[in-house]
């Protein structure tokens, strides 16, 4: 995280001899790449070059070859091991003769970083001294098991500040920066200090030792006579030798030391002096995880809590804790709406009447005072009572309207001992909106009670209940609102597992889920475009984003999707979506939110994390829906966040999660979009952002999106814009161009 931003010329001198070997040479390259992280590489600031030496020195790239850190690191990775003898002295003489190739001729400080095992086959003392006399700062970095006394000769004074060990890459990068921070680089960040600490230098020496003796025969002065004797048996062995030393490092205070994150949030350091807070669900009203005031809808809200023996005292206390945390997080200190709380077993009590409290603090005290009763579970009777009597109290505030939507949230974890079959119809007739919350085994009863699986929230374990707070908030505020994203523009791709691990019957469940999900979107060129990919060991595009322009056409195409039946590779499916679906050539629209929904059995996920990260890097959300048992850590690496992972126990339960999945997709559709992600420019064109627009910088191609090859000579040119066109594209004009491009492609 530390960077030297001074004007500086840095030359790496990498030992590529046989004594290093190919494996250690790769480590040297990796270490050189890590050291580049300590430099702000730019033609006007830090320039970096590299020489590889063995029998002879070889210039890999001069200092003026690359302009960015990423380019330098990529070039270092491509460096090939050469092999040969270790002629360090000859390499130093090359630098004395040639200087720093591509450098600024000593007008800026020069730093030479030698990465070697120090086992030179020639003398290095004289050329090393001459290099240092030219005011070149020399760092000697040991690799493998170096000969430290030889590296001492190479390093600048004092040697303890200029000797590093590549095996401890992070410490070595810190040590390099610590030495350069004064006076070469910019001043150390506020609060940081350079300090010394004890360390070890290790080397491997070959020594001779007496292993024992053996009987041998020796000649005698007497003619024709020999005599027996004991002869020493010598063997060679490698001995690890440790040299105590002093190392230097820069220590900075942790920006999280002050514990800035509230309400159980986790502080994550970012750089030397910044941080961000990972907030618990329901918090995140500001950067420090304040209570999130996100219940931005006006409703009359009544919670009905199961207090029967079936839910147990533990379950009742859990519901109370959930209710308190939800109201604190979603509503805040003042109550902008009427909230009431009731509890039931054989009887129904309303200890907190609707609108009784004006602030959250007094409401919390009343919730704390509620006691467990432990009778029978008469859910049907309780709901009927609430429908008749729960919303009779008049509003506390004069400006609160009497005709607000009325929402009942049922919290239960026990099967009802009376009939609930007619409750849903009766509650609906009273113009109440009912949401049911319970554990997994309550799923069927909650669907019956509410009359709609989309109005149920099912949790898998006690902690998962608290993770459902945002989902409850969305359902409360969706009263009277149609589902789906409606007129919000969206490019949506489904990647469906059609492997043998899913099986034909379960594949039909997945296909039906995709079909019913599409009913929630307005499908045309201007609003939602949908693509479908199925995959086994290979991925297949069933239809692209621009193939169908109506809901009926998409539904008809989904009905024809065949089952594949071979092994699964989710990684190849995600790569296919990135390269062959979410592209301008295949109908993707710049400036429109993009989402991939991966429907999988969990098989073949091993190689999916990297492609998923590539999609996110290109501004495409990856939403993972997994049915069955799969390792959660691996699924989280693919999804990138628990918010974009839905884990379902069986295919039959998939329908109950459709509302949640569509809500989260639509949240993404409403989020800001980077016009250059994914890159709308074809043929390696570079997308350059402007205020509310972008342009494509083309090389060898032309047109608004680099779609036409530049014609040489007198050949007729297409009527496109010239190369490196400065014309900028705003979101309003993007879709028209996309359609024209597809039309010309078909012709």
UniProtKB/TrEMBL annotation:
This protein's GO cellular component annotations are:
basement membrane; extracellular space
Write out the entry's keywords from A to Z: Disulfide bond, EGF-like domain, Repeat, Secreted, Signal
Subunit comment: Forms monomers and multimers.
Where the record annotates domain VWFA, the positions are 9-180, 300-476, 491-665
Q: What is the organism lineage in this UniProt record?
A: Eukaryota, Metazoa, Chordata, Craniata, Vertebrata
SUPFAM superfamilies referenced in this protein's UniProt entry, alphabetically: EGF/Laminin (SSF57196), vWA-like (SSF53300)
State the species of origin. Copsychus sechellarum
Could you give a GO molecular-function term held by this entry?
identical protein binding
Q: Which gene encodes it?
A: Vwa2
- List locations, semicolon-separated: Secreted
Q: Which InterPro entries match?
A: ECM_Assembly_Org, EGF, EGF-like_Ca-bd_dom, VWF_A, vWFA_dom_sf
Give coiled-coil spans as residue ranges: none
Task: For the region Disordered, give the residue spans.
Answer: 712-733
Q: Name one GO biological process term.
A: calcium-independent cell-matrix adhesion
- Residue span, EGF-like domain: 253-290, 672-707
Query: Under which name does UniProt file this protein?
Result: von Willebrand factor A domain-containing protein 2
């Amino acid at each position: 995280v530390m960077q030297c931003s001074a004007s500086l010329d840095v030359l790496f001198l990498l030992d590529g001899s046989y004594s290093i070997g190919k494996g250690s040479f790769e480590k040297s390259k990796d270490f050189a790449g890590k050291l580049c992280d300590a430099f702000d590489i730019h033609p006007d600031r830090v320039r970096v070059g590299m020489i590889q030496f063995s029998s002879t020195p070889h210039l890999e790239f001069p200092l003026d070859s690359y302009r960015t850190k990423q380019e330098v690191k990529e070039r270092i990775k491509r460096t090939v091991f050469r092999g040969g003898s270790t002629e360090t002295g000859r390499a130093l003489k090359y630098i004395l003769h040639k200087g720093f190739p591509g450098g600024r001729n000593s007008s800026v400080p020069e730093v030479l970083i030698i990465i070697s095992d120090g086992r030179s086959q020639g003398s290095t003392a004289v050329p090393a001294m001459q290099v240092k006399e030219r005011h070149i700062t020399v760092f000697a970095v040991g690799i493998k098991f170096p000969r430290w006394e030889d590296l001492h000769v190479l390093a600048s004074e004092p040697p303890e500040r200029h000797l590093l060990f590549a095996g401890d890459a992070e410490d070595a990068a810190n040590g390099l920066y610590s030495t350069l921070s004064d006076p070469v680089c910019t001043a150390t960040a506020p609060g940081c200090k350079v300090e010394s600490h004890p360390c070890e230098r290790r080397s491997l020496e070959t020594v001779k030792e007496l292993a024992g003796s053996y009987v041998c025969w020796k000649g005698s002065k007497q003619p024709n006579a020999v005599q027996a004797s004991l002869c020493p048996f010598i063997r060679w062995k490698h001995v690890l030798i440790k040299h105590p030393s002093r190392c230097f490092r820069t220590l900075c205070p942790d920006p999280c030391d002050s514990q800035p994150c509230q309400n159980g949030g986790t502080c994550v350091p970012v750089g030397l002096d910044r941080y961000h807070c990972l907030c618990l669900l329901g918090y995140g009203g500001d950067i420090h995880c304040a209570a999130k005031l996100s219940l931005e809808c006006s409703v009359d809200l009544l919670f009905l809590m199961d207090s029967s023996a079936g839910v147990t005292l533990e379950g009742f206390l859990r519901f109370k804790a959930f209710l308190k945390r939800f109201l604190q997080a979603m509503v805040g200190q003042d109550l902008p709406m009427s909230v009431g709380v009731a509890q039931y077993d054989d009887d129904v009590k309303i200890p907190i009447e609707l609108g009784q409290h004006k602030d959250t603090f007094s409401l919390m005290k009343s919730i704390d005072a509620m006691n467990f009763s432990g009778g029978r579970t008469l859910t049907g009777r309780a709901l009927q009572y609430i429908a008749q009597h729960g919303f009779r109290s008049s509003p506390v505030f004069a400006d609160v309207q009497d005709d607000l939507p009325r929402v009942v949230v049922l919290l239960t974890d026990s099967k009802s001992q009376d009939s609930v079959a007619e409750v849903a119809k009766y509650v609906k007739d009273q113009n109440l909106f009912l949401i049911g919350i319970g554990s997994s085994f309550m799923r069927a009863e909650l669907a019956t009670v509410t009359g709609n699986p989309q109005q149920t929230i099912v949790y898998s374990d006690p902690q998962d209940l608290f993770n459902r707070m945002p989902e409850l908030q969305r359902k409360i505020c969706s009263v009277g609102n149609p589902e789906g994203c409606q007129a919000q523009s969206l490019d949506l791709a489904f990647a469906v597992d059609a492997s043998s691990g899913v099986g034909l019957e379960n594949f039909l469940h997945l296909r039906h889920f995709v079909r019913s999900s599409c009913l929630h979107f307005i499908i045309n060129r201007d609003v939602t475009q949908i693509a479908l990919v199925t995959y086994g060991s290979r991925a297949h595009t069933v239809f692209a984003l621009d193939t169908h322009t109506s809901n009926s056409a998409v539904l008809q195409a989904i009905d024809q999707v065949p089952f594949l039946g071979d092994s699964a590779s989710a990684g190849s499916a995600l790569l296919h979506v990135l390269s062959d679906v979410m592209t301008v050539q295949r109908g993707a629209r710049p400036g429109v939110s993009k989402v991939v929904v991966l429907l999988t059995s969990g098989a073949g996920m091993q190689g999916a994390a990297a492609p998923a990260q590539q999609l996110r890097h290109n501004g495409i959300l990856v939403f993972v829906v997994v049915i069955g048992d799969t390792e959660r850590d691996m699924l989280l690496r693919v999804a990138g966040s628990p918010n974009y992972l839905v884990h379902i126990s069986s295919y039959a339960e998939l329908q109950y999660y459709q509302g949640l999945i569509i809500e989260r997709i639509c949240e993404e559709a409403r989020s800001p979009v980077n016009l250059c992600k994914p890159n709308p420019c074809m043929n390696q064109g570079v997308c350059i952002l402007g205020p509310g627009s972008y342009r494509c910088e083309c090389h060898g191609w032309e047109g608004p999106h680099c779609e036409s090859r530049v014609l040489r000579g007198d050949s007729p040119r297409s009527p496109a814009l010239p190369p490196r066109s400065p014309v900028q594209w705003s979101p309003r004009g993007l879709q028209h161009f996309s359609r024209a491009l597809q039309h010309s492609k078909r012709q």
